[in-house]
Design goal:
The chain has 307 residues and is α/β, with parallel strands linked by helices. It has helices at 15-25, 40-54, 69-77, 108-126, 160-167, 178-199, 224-237, 247-259, 293-304, and strands at residues 6-10, 32-37, 59-63, 83-88, 130-137, 204-208, 268-271, 280-282. The protein has 9 helices and 8 strands. Strands 3-2-1-4-5-6-7-8 form an 8-stranded mixed beta sheet, sandwiched between helices.
Length: 307
């Protein structure tokens, strides 16, 4: 496989995406970094800051809103040069109305974390614009983090219909807790990545959790008290108990998954049982359902009904 020289990062103007762009720019051989962002003003500010910090002018802005498939397809249509790798980083708790439905019929939280990235990867593959690696920002929430109040996502049968109910929110109802539905969304995306790895063996599909990361922008839209806890109280106390690390450590996980061939296609890497920080391990050793081929294919088939 050819060395990675160009990378596109979604949600690249802040948090983990921006830090990953900074760290990548300092890597030997990286010649182009595409900052995929939905807001031009914020994207331009991030590019200017990154150029100043890295002393490299290798950043190109791609306007893209992953919650809007049309925006994603339009952005890909404007690309003319193949990209070696993609970091599917954009995500979070789905804005102020995480359970509201998009015009595609999925919840906002699902659109943000899953569907937009499915559309992006499909569009890139259709035009043969990705040549090496797709890395998805997974989460330990996909197999549960009880110490953080995130229970293990519970699949009754893992059928196509059940995955549809996760995507459109009917499994949870209109009052579904975004802290729980987030874990389900991340689980579905992890299963989708496993299916894609088998369908496209010439591309690496690696799911890598950045871990519990203080300073990330992903939880900015939580209700006030939860937002204060995760971004301020949790950001101080949780690192002391091994439950959070800095944005630098989270982004470094992305780089490891992207650049280290020891991380295998179709696998999900995250922290050990019970923790969202520390050394990463293959999550199939914790939850075998995540590597079950039938479950992966059912998740992928359900997604095709929305993408």
């Amino acid at each position: 496989m050819n060395p990675i020289q160009s990378v596109l990062i979604t949600g690249a103007n802040a948090g983990l995406g921006r830090e990953a762009a900074r760290q990548l720019a300092l890597q030997k051989g990286i010649a182009k970094i595409y900052l995929a962002c939905r807001n031009r003003t914020k994207a331009e500010a991030a590019r200017t800051a990154l150029e100043n910090e890295t002393r490299r002018k290798i950043f190109e802005i791609v306007l893209m809103d992953v919650t809007d498939p049309a925006s994603v397809r339009n952005a890909v249509a404007e690309l003319s040069t193949p990209i070696d790798a993609v970091i599917l980083n954009a995500g979070g708790t789905g804005g102020r109305q995480p359970n509201s439905l998009t015009k595609e019929g999925v919840t906002n939280i699902f659109a943000t974390n899953v569907l937009g990235h499915v559309v992006l990867v499909d569009a890139l593959l259709e035009r043969q614009l990705v040549t090496s690696t797709v890395l998805y920002a997974g989460s330990e929430a996909a197999r549960g983090i009880p110490k953080m109040g995130m229970h293990r996502p519970n699949l009754s049968e893992g059928t196509v219909d059940e995955f549809r109910s996760i995507a459109d929110g009917s499994k949870f109802g209109p009052e579904g807790d975004p802290m729980q539905t987030y874990g389900y969304a991340k689980m579905v995306a992890t299963l989708w990545m496993g299916a894609m790895a088998r369908q496209h063996p010439h591309i690496r599909f690696v799911t890598m959790s950045p871990g519990g990361t203080a300073g990330t922008a992903g939880f900015d839209d939580l209700p006030l008290m939860k937002r204060i806890f995760f971004k301020h109280v949790g950001g101080v106390l949780m690192p002391l108990f091994g439950m959070m690390h800095g944005v630098e450590a989270g982004a470094k996980r992305y780089l490891d998954g992207l650049l280290n061939p020891e991380f295998k296609s179709g696998h999900f890497y995250a922290s050990q049982t019970g923790y969202p920080t520390g050394p990463v391990v293959d999550q199939a050793s914790i939850d075998a359902a995540l590597s079950d081929i039938t479950t992966q294919d059912n998740a992928n088939q359900a997604l095709r009904q929305f993408a």
